[in-house]
Amino acid sequence: MIALGCMPHGCVEPQWTATDTRPASVRVHGLRWAWLLLVALALVLASVCAPVFAGLPETPRPRQLTVADGLPSNTISRIAEDRFGYLWIATSEGLARYDGISYQVWRREQGLRDNYLWAVHVDAHNRVWIGTGQSGLAMLDTDRKTFRYYNRANTAGMGDDTVWSIASTPDGALWFGTQHGGLHRMASDGSVTRYMPREGDPRSLPSDGISNLAVAPDGNLWISTLAGAARWTGRDFERVPEHALSSDLVNTISFEADGTAWFGTPHGVGVRRPTGVTRPSRGRRSRRA
Known about the structure:
The chain has about 290 residues and is mainly beta.
């Protein structure tokens, strides 16, 4: 129909107005079908989108574990995992094994000669090796009941009883670094060879203080020291150029899958590519006093 109206200032143009002349029952039936269509569309969208969201990884939620949870100390030096999935934790108050729920703790009462631990490492035979503050190198056998100790008093060639770092290489050798006694290689027969820096020899260790040991994807041993980093070549040591490090003190070395090495220092990182090319660190180089 057409409605024509006039206002105080004059008449307005004709306008069409729509009037639904269908019976009320028909209109209600049409609304029901509209709602059903919307619900069906929502279900289809949900079925399509759900797999997309289900495939997204859940955001990790860090959980802090402390002495309140059973740790012997909140000061953690190193962590290692054995072949059964247990985590071994070296702390300032003993050794802890974590199974995902609770801890088993070893202190002096359980056979440790020194509660202050610097390092922990699990070898290919699933033995747990521990670097202590003053009692040398300890080994917890696979039965997890007996400790064996290696120190200056009972092991020829060992130069220091403060063991800072431990690693094993594919040839079966166990390596451990000490605070002031250099780097040591223990062969499968238990014999120990000691390596020290030699003045004027660039193919020797940069320092007698070995802060960390790391094995690259190709099986080569890399050494972090208090005065630089180096790679064991099988005969001697290839030092990392000074310009690739922003500090003489190298705390850690990490590797990418292709063998790229990253050196962590108190003043930044350095990098060495698999080709041997190093990238100079930016910023002021710091020398350890």
